[in-house]
Amino acid sequence: MIRRPPRSTPKPSSAASDVYKRQYIPRRAMRDARDDDFLDWMRARGVTRDDARCAVRGDGDRGRFVECARATLAVGTTLATIPKSACLTTATSALGAIEGARGSGVVGLCVAVAHERSLGAKSTFAAYLKTLPAREALPSTFAADDEARRALRGTTVEGMLGADERAIADDYHAFAREMKERFARRGVNMPTLEEFRDAATLVASRAFFVDDALGQGLVPFADLFNHKGGSDGAHFNVVGCGDADADALTLVTCRTAKRGEELFNSFGDDHDNTVLLYKYGFVERDNRVATSSFGFGLLRDAGDISFESVHSWMTESYDGVDELEIDANGAMSRPLLALLRIASFEFLRDVDSGDDESHSDDVDYDTSIGVLLERTMTGDESEAEILASVDDYVVLALFRGRFNAYLDTKDEDRCDDDVSSLLRDVAREIKRCADLANDASGVRQQFGSGISGVAAAYHVRADELGLLMKAIIRAFDFGDDEETNEDVPDTKKPKLVEVVPAYAPTIYIKPKE
Length: 513
Description:
Helix content: 25-40%
Distance between the termini: 43 Å
Largest sheet: 4 strands, antiparallel
Number of helices: 15
Strand order of the largest sheet: 1-4-9-8
Number of strands: 16
Structural class: alpha+beta
């Protein structure tokens, strides 16, 4: 049922309606009939908001954002109420009556959005959909020769995009196999893969969780708020999410705001810049990259050491070893330490190193590499103790190979140098990327405290290289001065992370069983 405005609220007169539109629509966009249609559509669908306290501003250059208008916002103020029937979900879409479409998850929502767009003016969501871009400017939409895409070379984001490309295609084809005949019986065409991809970018950056019955959905007006992370990020909470008995989502302020201050939502307080760029297409200046991955095809063989074959053996023999990462402190994950230990064992077994004594524990040829893997993953040894059993050449080869993943192909064979030269090369690349990020930041300014496009890509690249530098320094500092390592926290045991496609609005973490 569509919730109508309270009876005490009179229908705006023509003059009052003009004021209503001036508060909501930025001047440059006032001549666009789509905005007027959207306002009329929201009123007809029962969407209400406190237009005296929140107004949409912006223009074609900066985009839309919401700010506090005319009054100071107090905690507990209702900014807007959006009936769930006005949210675009699989149930409220034109596909809702088709068996299997309703409740078909995020993939189904992407199909529903693509289908509603194909209906044009016949869609019940036409006025809302006309206000949305054809696609969001996410990294997945960057052309291969785009500077921003090139800047992402070697980053965790690039690796995630490669995995995501395959996942999106697989999800689309699986849904098509199951639903195509049912669609055909209703005279509905399955969207093309390209249409699905475009819709997926909208779902990734705009979808909210509505409730268990409706799942994820696009929520008109609520999706205009920009992101700000941290404890002082969101200005409001969304009441009604997860409550199947609530027939509307209500935006209720949780912190104060002054007149003219932009009002923010939070897409996730724990999202680092890798996630923000990958899923939403921007980064925050005051946010950082929390982890850098050696996975997603970014692990590189170096010289006579085949890290890739060792990793392949590990994944076949042990669950939960895909977390090949370094964290914000430069600490290596347990699977990455296990990779180094096994690669070192194999390397020292195959060459006459002349250093058997310092590796007596791990170079016993009767020692099973399976025991080494199990010991590293589940034992109580510290990171320092594990690294003390790994040959320095192997550690250096791993880091040089990872650094080369960021560079041009012509540089990828270089690995047999010293730590100082590697650190110098990394530092030089960090400075170059930081300078390019600063130079480009004024070209594509993002709302709030964030940046997008080329500047965002270089920002993430520089951050990840900074983590790599920390890891190199940390790894080669261990063992030289034991006293300096007493306060270094031990590496946390790995979590089993379920990697979901970019269009999924939530990142799910599955606890280790």
